[in-house]
Amino acid sequence: MGFTAIFRYIAVLITITSSSSYISGSIVSTEQRLIEHLLTNYSKEARPTLSQKTATNVSFGLELVQLINVNDRYQMITVKVWVRQNWKNELVRWDPKDWDGIKSVQVDGKLMWTPDIVLYNNADSEFSGGLDKYKTRVILYSDGSHYWLSPSTFTSTCKIDITYFPFDKQICSLKYGSWAYDSSGINMMADNRPVVTSQYINSSEWEIVEGLKTRNSVKYACCPYPYLDVTVKLVLKRKPLYYIFNVITPCLVLAVTILFGFFLPPESGERISLTITILLAVAVFLQLVSDSLPRNSDSIPILAIFYMVIMTESALSLVTTCIVLMFHFRSTARGVERPPPWMRKLFFQKIGKLIKIKRLKISDSKFESEAPKSEKMNGKTYCNDGFAESYAIPVENGTFETRQMPHSPSLRPTRNGIASGKKQRLTPNLTLQDLDMNSNGNKNILDDILTEVQIVADNFRQNQATEENQDEWKHISMILDRMFFWLFLITLTISAVATLLPVYLKYN
Predict the structure, then answer these.
(1) How far apart are CA 61 and CA 348, in angstroms?
(2) Which of 8, 149, 174, 379 is the most exposed place for a label (fewest CB within 10 A)?
(3) How many other C-beta atoms lie within 10 A of the C-beta of residue 181?
(4) CA neighbours within 13 Å on the CB side: how many for 90?
């Protein structure tokens, strides 16, 4: 190899070395060299303070982004938030003049010391600490200030009271604090920024009434110094519109239909069917809306109590309907018995007057107009359309004696007639030609006629008494029907107002 070749080899080597240095210089930027400088001989395990007697001030903030779920059954709340933490690291500082004016850099959170602030009342299966949960980078400033901003989702325990469902308010708290450092190691403080901002996505079921952050100091039995925490309190207000239209309104409609059963006449035969249908509808609807009601055994929602009241009143309306029908169709094998005196006095004189129902009586004048008329012709008595008021029987010496027909002033034709259900009349039409005064057979005929007339009169009297007794039982059933209607109307109104109105007023 000659001198010229050696010279060229040295020139190429110098060129390659220069190029490598140029390339290496372009890759290793000022920021990279600054980060390498900051991390050289730095341990993330050490608390970022020059004096161990000085506590590290950590500011904690939380901004609510979305309310994901409020679990009534398991007493949990899930939220999506933005977490803000900042502290000052006295071990990591630099002068921007020495590093091309760089005032901030971002590094992996696992390379720097970070506060172990966790959610104390965590209900998630995963660990809620910042060391594992936050995946974002930490911003380092030249004066030693560190900022750690990270989105996260937390599931926290929350005591939920569903007594006033769906007009209820819930207060849920998220308690954040350091798990390892007490107040001598970390002085935890709450920032001044609001919890709910314009970034919040409104929930379709819940309204955020208020969001507060408070700093608390709690002394535990394990440690000599108290522990500091920042508690975020969320006041939630349920939106009841869905439940009003899909749960409450159908229940009120079913409650009103109970009253319409009392307007049906007992003779229609549909009262029992309507009442049973309403009862079944309430039971089926309660089964359908049971999924909408919170599953919680600690307290019973007033809405569920209201449903049970409506179901109970539906069952009682069935009982009262049976009672009314029993009195309306009152009958026995021996005929209709008259109501006891105490019952007539109670219903006719007291309850009937109280609810303004007058007793309907059969008018005597109505039947007097239909009474049979008798005529006398040539000393003889005839019944031209009905029963004769008197009749003549032969006596001695060819004379006649007039006698009155046995009957009661209450003997009147009934609306239903005698046993056959038709109005029957007996017209003897007795004349002198039909009677032979000297014959004993004629006396027997007259006795038979008198016996039959007495039987007919007894039938009329019995049917009239039966009808009057039936009218009294029907009148009692009418009074009971009207009384039960007003009782159910008052009960339904009181139950609806007493359960729903206080809840609504408390809600507002």
Answers:
(1) 77
(2) 379
(3) 21
(4) 11
DSSP 3-state of 98:
helix
The CA distance from 495 to 488, in Å, is 10
**Residues with Cβ < 8 Å from 1, sequence gap 6 or more?**
none
Q: How far apart are CA 227 and CA 220, in angstroms?
A: 8
What does the pLDDT look like over 75-132, one tens digit per residue? Answer: 899 999 999 999 999 999 999 999 999 999 999 988 999 999 999 999 887 777 777 7
* Prediction pTM value: 0.66
- Lookup: tokens for 295: 């599953």
The SS3 of residue 106 is strand
Residue 490: strand, helix, or coil: helix
Count of beta carbons in the 10 Å neighbourhood of residue 394: 18
The Cα diameter of the chain in Å comes to 198
| DSSP H helices in 234-355 | 241-243, 249-260, 271-289, 302-328, 341-344, 352-354
317/308 Cα distance (integer angstroms)? 14
- pLDDT, mean of residues 143-159: 93
CB 116 within 8 A of CB 131: yes
From the list 80, 57, 52, 76, the residue with the least C-alpha distance to 68 is: 80
Strands 56-71 and 186-190: parallel
Peptide bond into 166 cis (omega under 30): yes
**CB-based contact 302:164 (threshold 8 Å):** yes
The pLDDT mean for the chain works out to 77
Tell me how far apart the alpha carbons of residues 272 and 326 are, in angstroms, rounded to a whole number.
Answer: 12
* Whether the Cβ atoms of residue 174 and residue 79 lie closer than 8 Å to each other: yes
CA atoms within 13 A on the CB side of 275: 23
For 349, 363, 472, 489, the CA distances from 352, given in Å and listed in that order, are 6, 20, 12, 18
Nearest CA to 255 among 489, 502, 17? 489
Angle at 280 between CA 274 and CA 286, to 5 degrees: 135
Confidence of residue 423 (pLDDT cuts 50, 70, 90): very low
* C-alpha–C-alpha distance, residues 91 and 112, integer Å: 11
Query: Per the structure block, which two tokens stand in for 8?
Result: 């060229």
Please state, in angstroms and rounded to a whole number, the distance separating the CA atoms of residues 302 and 242.
Answer: 17
Whats the size of the chain, residue-wise?
A: 508
Fill in the amino acid letter for 309. V
| Spatial distance between the Cα atoms of 430 and 450, rounded to a whole number of angstroms | 12
Taking alpha carbons only, the member of 170, 179, 187 closest to residue 233 is: 170
* Per-residue tokens: 239: 């939106």
Contact 396, 444 (CB under 8 A): no
Residue 179: exposure state from Cβ atoms within 10 A (0-12, 13-18, ≥19): middle
Query: What tokens does 330 get?
Result: 């009152």
Helices (H), 329-439: 341-344, 352-354, 364-368
Contacts of residue 78, defined as CB under 8 A and 6 or more positions apart, other chains included, come to 67, 68, 69, 70, 71, 153, 154, 155, 156
Per-residue pLDDT, 359: 62
